[in-house]
Amino acid sequence: MRPMSETAPASNNSDSSNKPEFSRLSPKYFVICVVAFAFALFAWKAIIALGNPIFTGDASVRMLNADRLIARMGNRVWLPYLQWLIWGLARFDVPYSFFNLIPCAHLFLAVLGLGLLGLRFLGRNWRGLLISLAVMFCFAQQAVIARSSTTLYQEITAIALFYLLLYGGALELARRRWLPVVGAAALLTRDSMWFYLFSLTLLNGKTILSDNGYRRTFAFLWSIPPLFLTAVLFGWLVFNDRLPTIPTEWPLMINKEGNQAVSSLAESFRHLWTSAVASRFIFLAIALIVAWIVYAIESKRCKVGPSPASDFAHRLKPFSFLSLAICYGLILLFDPWQYTEGSRRIYSIATEQAFLWILVSAAAVRFYRPAARIITAIALLAGLAASLDQRITSWIPEWNPGKVAVYEEITARIEAVAPGRKPTACMIGDHFEELSDFSAAIYRFSHRVLPIGAIHIPKSCDALFTTVENAPADTEGLVRAKEYSIDDRRYVLHLRRR
Fold first, then answer.
1. Residue 59: how many other CB atoms lie within 10 Å
2. Alpha carbon distance 184, 23 (integer Å)
3. CA-based torsion, 343, 170, 186, 136: positive or negative
């Protein structure tokens, strides 16, 4: 889709009816409003994250590796950007709940980039501001984004860097010194950025090869993926004394049943469909399809001219088609989310691009006939509304100071058992779910995860934390210290005598 503009568009993307408005308000006013709203969204998310901190799934694994610059889960070796931030905070021994401010801060960067792009496409006027703020809000509360903006998942960090790159002119190959730095961070955040780089390189190959500056920049960026893959390969030799299994352990680094790279394409397709519905991305897709149909009809009667939105859409269109085809083609082929089938996070890549196309579609509406404007506006608003997260906890902060206090108490108790040295905190149970917050609270200590039904407790354990039903009969020198009730579940802490 390429927004239609008049043959001689007015400056700042505004028509003559807005001239009196601009005589009263500086364009900077609308930028300040976007920045202020982004701060408000950050504050809201921070209250949610700190009021009831949650570290389920990947977040618990990352916190158990807070003392490391690289984190691994099975075959999966995560790109290090997010882990570096966790490691950096861990150096200051901050309370465990504060780590969830990392995704909150990246949500701020993401909505800020999205809002500034909205003002660029729609104009620094009241119309552009209201639409930009609405899109920022719906993005922050979209089902995929709302869940990843308050816990330690890599999706929101990648989206934030992606939007900053686009605002800085990455698609236009703008010459800004900070772009390669942000680009390098993005490539160390999520592997979808590797395919973004491939798409950008392929679409601009001649331009890149014809310019020394571009060649140096892209050579630097392209050095990152192979260096990381090489580091992982040597990591297997150093820590596992063997070469990884190809291709699941390396270079794909995916966790699959039977360690098979390609399993059932039918199951993979089912997971994609389940995720499209669960993530509520399907509603964004339907809205954009309707908007595209209206555009196709309206573009036959209006001449398309240059504008910031149309120029951006002209570059975004081939980039979106190519990058999404690569990303979801590989997902369909290898099904990397097999163990978490139907995960909402599968569609985070499509969601981040869908919101860009919503802005582009909104920029095109002003040149439509009245009926076409109404249809497009209703479709986009309905799609945005239907894609919002349905959980009450993502809207109304849930205060759970008892849980925070309990884990701080547990941390202090374990620390007191081993004065002058780092204690070893052991746990029995699923650290992905029921023990996930405990995993985060003990990030300063050494740790061991024991299987459910464990009979013998290693002598290295200074503490043992588990649910009451999984507590072993013989704790071998560990004394029952206290029983806790956390989120309507009973836990017990055993400590070694000093």
1. 25
2. 42
3. negative
What SS3 state is found at 77?
strand
Dihedral angle computed from the Cα positions of residues 154, 157, 158 and 160, in that order, rounded to the nearest 10 degrees: 160
Query: Residue 467, SS3?
Result: strand
List beta partners, residue 496.
478
With CA atoms as reference, report the closest residue to 250 among 84, 83, 72. 72
Distance CA 348, CA 156 (A): 9
Q: Residues 388, 395: contact at Cβ < 8 Å?
A: no
Cα–Cα distance measured from residue 289 to residue 158, given in angstroms and rounded to the nearest whole number: 26
Query: Angle at the Cα of 494 (from 98 to 416), degrees rounded to 5?
Result: 60
Residue 121's H or E segment, with its range, is helix 101-122
pLDDT > 60? residue 12: no
Q: How far apart are alpha carbons 262 and 274 in whole angstroms?
A: 19
Alpha helices in 335-400 (DSSP H): 348-365, 370-386
Can you tell me the distance from the alpha carbon of 438 to that of 457, in angstroms, rounded to the nearest whole number? Answer: 18
| Alpha-carbon dihedral sign for residues 166, 169, 173, 176 | negative
| 463 φ, ψ (degrees, to nearest 5) | -150, 155
Angle CA 446–448–450, to nearest 5? 165
Residue whose token pair is 């570059």: 315
The two tokens of residue 333 are 């082929």
Whether pLDDT at 425 is above 90: yes
Query: Does an H or E element contain 449, and which?
Result: strand 446-450
Backbone angles phi, psi at 474, to 5 degrees: -115, 115
Task: Go through 22-41 and write b for each residue having 16 or more CB atoms within 10 A of its CB, e for each that does not.
Answer: beeeeeeebeebbeebbebb
Phi and psi dihedrals of 477, rounded to 5?
Answer: 95, -10
Q: What is the pLDDT of residue 329?
A: 97
Which stretch of DSSP H or E encloses residue 100? none
Does pTM top 0.90 for this prediction?
yes
User: What is the enclosing helix (H) or strand (E) of 407?
Assistant: helix 401-417
- Residue 231 · residue 191 · CB < 8 Å: no
**Residue 63 near residue 96, CB atoms below 8 Å:** yes
User: Which of 11-25, 203-217, 372-386 shows the lowest per-residue confidence on average (mean pLDDT)?
Assistant: 11-25
Nearest Cα to 45, choosing from 160, 185, 131, 126?
A: 160
